[in-house]
Amino acid sequence: MNYELKKIFYTPPKILQRIFNNFVWESKVDKILLTFDDGPNPGSTKIILDRLNRHNIKALFFCVGENVNKYPNLVKQIIAEGHTIGNHSYSHKNITFTSKVKIDEQIKLCSDIIREEIEAAPQFFRPPHGRFDFRTNRIVLKHQLKNIMWSLLTYDYKNDLNIVKFAIQNYITKSSIIVLHDSEKSKDIIGASIDFIVEAADKRGFEFGEISECLK
Fold first, then answer.
1. Which band of pLDDT confidence, cut at 50, 70 and 90, is reported for residue 11?
2. What number of CA atoms fall less than 13 Å from residue 152's CA on the CB side?
3. Can you give the CATH number for the domain in which 178 is found?
4. Is the pLDDT confidence value at 193 over 70?
5. Which of 14, 29, 100, 148 is at a distance of 20 to 30 A from 132, taking alpha carbons?
6. Does residue 14 lie in a domain region?
């Protein structure tokens, strides 16, 4: 991908947002929300938490149920440091290629595991790989979850800080929901990515918001 040419890969098309207008695509206030997909992960979660603490930012972590099972102490640390856990399905499979029954199972199992670990049910869902279809909203609502998408994808999982910098420099707004990844793929650049986002936001006079206000 020539990342300097294809805006559509960074920001979802407006027509898609209008069609799926029950999903949340950007912050509800003029404040940026940082989100982290695919964790928890021992190689990256602690790096992320350290950087967020340095910058006094609270974030939303969309966790995979299998990883919550493997690393419950990391989940507890995320919560202890004031962040929020969301549902990212049990095994991170593309839900557009499976039945409604299987989608239901993936979401329910992940919520159950999270509830067991943090003694609270998640309120937010993000589909694995950002893939969804017209069934998604009905199934998510059944589980009393809100579907949270994004307005800016950084491609940090490509492990190239220059791509992240390009995405932020060109497409960050005062109400961005930004996607980063809590995974092995991004761990080598995730700290620097967070620092760069904070620096870019500060230069523009943008603020970072709490989950409760950004997704109200």
1. very high
2. 25
3. 3.20.20.370
4. yes
5. 29
6. no
Instruction: State residue 85 phi and psi, 5-degree precision.
Output: -105, 130
Structure tokens that stand for 71 in this block: 């690393």
Mapping DSSP onto H, E and C, the string for the chain reads CCCCCCHHHCCCCHHHHHHCCCCECCCCCCCEEEEEECCCCCCCHHHHHHHHHHHCCCCEEEECHHHHHHCHHHHHHHHHCCCEEEECCCCCCCHHHCCHHHHHHHHHHHHHHHHHHHCCCCCEECCHHHCCCCCHHHHHHHCCCEEECCCEECCHHHCCHHHHHHHHHHHCCCCCEEEEECCCCCCCCHHHHHHHHHHHHHHHCCCECCHHHHCC
Q: How far is CA 92 from the centre of its chain?
A: 13
Residue 201 forms part of a structural domain: yes
Longest dimension (CA), the chain: 47
Structural domains counted in the chain: 1
Sheet holding 84-87, edge to edge: 146-147, 124-125, 84-87, 60-63, 33-37, 177-181, 152-153
- What's the rounded Cα separation, in Å, for the pair 186 and 167? 15
Residue 33 inside a domain? The answer is yes
Residue-wise pLDDT tens digits, 46-95: 999 999 999 999 999 999 999 999 999 999 999 999 999 999 999 999 88
Predicted local distance difference test score (pLDDT) of residue 150: 97
- Which range marks the domain in which residue 81 is found? 24-214
